């Protein structure tokens, strides 16, 4: 079952974004007559096609975008590839694949604009099993050589303790590793949480990247004030290894879905230095995704 309405509109931020500003975390769904979901999920998949994503970028003043594979499409990146073909070079994609995917497919994806693979170690909310359609980090070692050859990186969604347990695996892959949703941190544990400190240490080493995406780690809607100390600490640890993301179309958040213009205004408030804003929004994504 899918929604029949597109995600609500978003306002522009009150400040002028720098040219080349990139939203590094979004998803596309549908149109379902062309791209039906292959894995029933615990959420209702929204109608969020490539055209709606382009409209969101235009409305908010974002120049570029990264589309990340959702579990509902398993290892089929067709909706992302369609969006990339219509993106005028402004978009890149992160697919999902195990070692069952033909190498020729990976080559074709690279030509289309895919620049990494997503691995998901999260469990379904309220359950113990993995997200349907997801590829877990147990596939990372097998996929890493081909990813290195293509200049790709690995993007990983997991809780912070799982990330810390996997740090040796991540380092051994020889890949840039990008952690979704502020590394799945636990705000209630505070800044002195040993797991958070381990992530900061790895971030300082230079091979680890973090996506500054607020709405999955904080329940303090709409201003996410409890996340700010962690946001500041991640940037301070290595400002060259953080990127910003909206998480559009905000799956499962319903009335708590943030307005992207407001998210960008919070970012400007929390990062008042214009040069640092440009580094996070423009320079770091350009390096990571090859714009």
Structural class from helices and strands? alpha/beta
Report on the biggest sheet: 8 strands, parallel
Distance between the termini: 36 Å
What proportion strand?
5-15%
- The neighbouring-strand order within the major sheet is 1-2-3-4-5-6-7-8
Tell how many strands the DSSP assignment holds: 8
Pick out the low-confidence regions: none
Helix content estimate: 25-40%
Tally of individual helices = 9
Order of helices and strands: EHEHEHEHEHEHEHEHH
Write down the Rg: 18 Å
- Mean of residue pLDDT values: 94
How would you sum up the global shape?
globular
Account of the protein in words:
With 291 residues, the chain is an alpha/beta fold. 35% of the residues lie in helices and 13% in strands. It is built from nine helices and eight strands. An eight-stranded parallel β-sheet has the order 1-2-3-4-5-6-7-8, sandwiched between helices. Helix 4 (140-150) packs across helix 5 and helix 5 (160-173) packs parallel to helix 6. The mean pLDDT is 94.
């Amino acid at each position: 079952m899918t929604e029949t309405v597109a995600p609500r509109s978003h306002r522009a931020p009150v400040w002028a974004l720098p040219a080349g500003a990139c939203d590094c975390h979004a998803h596309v769904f549908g149109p379902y007559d062309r791209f039906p979901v292959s894995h029933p999920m615990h959420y209702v998949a929204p109608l969020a096609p490539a055209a709606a994503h382009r409209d969101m970028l235009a409305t908010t003043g974002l120049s570029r975008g990264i589309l990340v594979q959702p579990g509902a499409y398993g290892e089929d990146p067709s909706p992302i590839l369609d969006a990339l073909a219509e993106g005028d070079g402004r978009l890149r994609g992160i697919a999902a694949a195990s070692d069952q995917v033909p190498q020729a497919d990976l080559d074709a994806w690279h030509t289309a604009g895919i620049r990494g693979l997503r691995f998901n170690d999260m469990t379904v909310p309220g359950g113990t099993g993995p997200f349907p359609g997801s590829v877990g980090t147990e596939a990372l070692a097998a996929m890493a050589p081909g990813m290195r050859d293509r200049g790709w990186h690995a993007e990983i969604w997991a809780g912070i303790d799982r990330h810390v347990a996997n740090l040796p695996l991540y380092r051994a892959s020889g890949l840039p590793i990008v952690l979704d949703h502020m590394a799945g941190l636990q705000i209630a544990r505070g800044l002195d949480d040993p797991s958070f400190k381990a992530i900061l240490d790895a971030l300082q080493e230079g091979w680890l990247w973090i996506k500054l995406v607020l709405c999955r780690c904080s329940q303090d809607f709409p201003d996410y004030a409890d996340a700010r100390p962690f946001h500041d600490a991640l940037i301070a640890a290595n400002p060259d290894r953080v990127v910003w993301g909206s998480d559009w179309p905000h799956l499962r958040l319903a009335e708590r879905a943030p307005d992207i213009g407001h998210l960008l205004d919070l970012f400007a408030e929390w990062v008042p230095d214009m040069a640092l804003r440009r580094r996070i929004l423009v320079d770091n994504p350009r390096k990571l995704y090859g714009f």
